[in-house]
Design brief:
With 405 residues, the protein is α/β, with parallel strands linked by helices. The protein contains 16 helices and nine strands. Helices cover 53% and strands 10% of the residues. The strands form two sheets. A six-stranded parallel beta sheet has the order 1-9-6-4-2-3, with helices on both faces. It has a three-stranded mixed beta sheet with strand order 5-8-7. It is globular, with a radius of gyration of 20 Å.
Length: 405
């Protein structure tokens, strides 16, 4: 009862400001990021720095990316524009890292941020852009649509094909004091440029290829089925689903398949554009919680949870899920619409098995005795209200966790 009461109080507070965001989002689409895609496109970063009117670029990255030599490639391309490097971004980054990086960037006079990495690096960099421009600490800017002017220019070089953060309006950051992930959301933090060079993903291990691919797949499917879906986003989402279904097995089987890698990069970006306009929903609310409480990598959590939530939503998104099944290659001819919709979840599970994605939460270190607490947090995540099937009872979410444990 305590958990349910806590969830109700937190959700009432969250919902108080939701109407304004819905009013802002419905019927609108905004995709301002310039995307440069293809083999050997990284040298274009020099021209893009000049076009933005910047002179001192500060690179944000993580230890693994720097060790792999990818950060050095960007430094070499920037030549004399590189003012410094921060390589301490952690998986599921937190607000303290944002403040530390922003202080270092300010100390070297940075006027542009270049993020080289996956979702954690990109989201951290978005928050750094805000602190550099608007001052204060990262925690001062946790809000939706509060910013009123463009923030520090930001160029993204993704090293995974999953988050789509290179084109989105959100930075998802861990708050240790709040005990949950929090958001900075604004069209003013959408990156200026994304450079999709498949050379930066060729070394991605099979496991990360699978989990980041399922992250992108979740973005596309949730964007298609949210309560705020719209035709422009639907088109992007559907094509992203097709591209991931076709190219993820290829990249998992042969990490050096450059064409498959490029197609996955493009699909992840398209899915990012899709959910920027249409939002994500319950899968992400549940996955954010597992990342915060148990350190589960975001893509892995999304993939494991996705089929269960698709089945949970089947009677509220039947037509859309039937389209998902077709995009995944299911022959739905002669099927009843509901059966076709359910086959989409089966197809996702088959794809996960094919690429070696974990299938159960028990495989990624989640304990089986705390789902009530996790459910309360997930229910109050900012994205959960956009779910196709209304969910207000933590017991329903706890049951979903249990089903995939």
């Amino acid at each position: 009862m305590h958990v349910n009461a806590l969830a109700a109080v937190e959700c009432n507070v969250m919902m108080a400001g939701l109407a304004d965001r819905l009013k802002f989002s419905l019927g609108q689409y905004n995709g301002p990021t310039k995307v440069i895609a293809g083999h050997g496109t990284i040298p274009s970063i020099y021209k893009e720095i000049v076009s933005l009117g910047c002179k001192r670029a500060f690179i944000m990255t993580d230890p693994g990316v720097r060790k792999a030599g990818l950060t050095q490639i960007v430094q070499d391309a920037l030549v004399d524009f590189c003012a410094g490097v921060f390589d301490k971004v952690a998986q599921d980054t937190d607000l303290a890292i944002v403040d530390k990086a922003a202080a270092m960037a300010r100390s070297v006079g940075a006027d542009c941020i270049v993020s080289v990495g996956g979702g954690s690096v990109i989201d951290t960099s978005k928050a750094v852009c805000v602190v550099l421009k608007s001052g204060g600490k990262a925690n001062d800017h946790i809000a939706m649509n509060r910013l009123t002017v463009p923030q520090t220019p930001h160029i993204v070089v993704p090293t995974t094909s999953g988050t789509g953060s290179e084109v989105t309006d959100a930075a998802v950051i861990k708050s240790k004091s709040a005990g949950r992930k929090v958001y900075i959301m604004s069209p003013f933090i959408i990156p200026n440029v994304a450079i999709l060079d498949p050379c930066f993903t060729l070394g991605l291990p099979k496991g990360l290829t699978a989990t980041t691919g399922l992250d992108a797949m979740t973005h596309a499917i949730e964007a298609l089925t949210t309560t705020t879906s719209q035709p422009i986003c639907d088109g992007l989402a559907m094509q992203a689903i097709r591209m991931i279904a076709e190219n993820l097995p290829r990249a998992a089987a042969n990490g050096r398949d450059e064409e498959a890698r490029l197609q996955l990069q493009l699909a992840a970006t398209m899915a990012g554009w899709a959910f920027s306009g249409a939002h994500v929903a319950l899968v992400h609310g549940m996955a954010h919680t597992l990342g915060m409480l148990y350190g589960v990598p975001h893509g892995a959590a999304c993939g494991i949870i996705l089929p269960a939530v698709m089945r949970f939503n089947v009677d509220f998104a039947t037509d859309k899920l039937a389209l998902v099944a077709q995009a995944l290659g299911v022959d739905t001819a002669g099927m009843e619409k509901r059966a076709a919709a359910l086959s989409a979840a089966d197809a996702i599970e088959s794809l996960m098995k094919e690429v070696g994605h974990p299938m159960r939460l028990s495989e990624v270190g989640v304990p089986g005795d705390a789902f009530d607490i996790a459910a309360a947090h997930a229910l109050c995540d900012d994205v959960t209200p956009f779910n196709a099937r209304p969910v207000t009872d933590p017991a329903e979410v706890s049951l979903l966790y249990t089903q995939v444990f």
